[in-house]
Design brief:
This protein has two helices and no strands. By secondary structure, it is mainly alpha-helical.
């Protein structure tokens, strides 16, 4: 083999290697891609956390409302009972 043959083989090898590296570079994520993905994930994490906090707040509000409604219903039942007692003692007919 001559020096010229080695040079041609070297050029061919370099060409194939460059082509392979180009294909790998196109497929693999770059450092910038990974950093962008980390930023997106961090943003998503913050959104999920804020959503969880809001769900907890809504759950607390719902529980407070449920307790207030139970108290109001009890009070309404007592008032209705008193009204019926008054009506019975005063011989008043109640119309609904």
């Amino acid at each position: 083999m001559t020096d010229e043959d080695f040079a041609k083989l070297n050029d061919l090898f370099d060409s194939k290697l460059d082509h392979t590296i180009d294909r790998l570079t196109a497929v693999l994520a770059s450092k910038k891609d990974v950093q962008n993905l980390r930023g997106d994930v961090e943003g998503l994490r913050e959104t999920v956390q804020a959503t969880a906090v809001n769900v907890d707040k809504l759950t607390g509000i719902k529980e407070d409302f449920r307790m207030e409604k139970a108290a109001t219903d009890g009070q309404l039942d007592r008032h209705e009972g008193w009204i019926k007692q008054l009506a019975a003692k005063t011989d008043t007919r109640l119309e609904y």
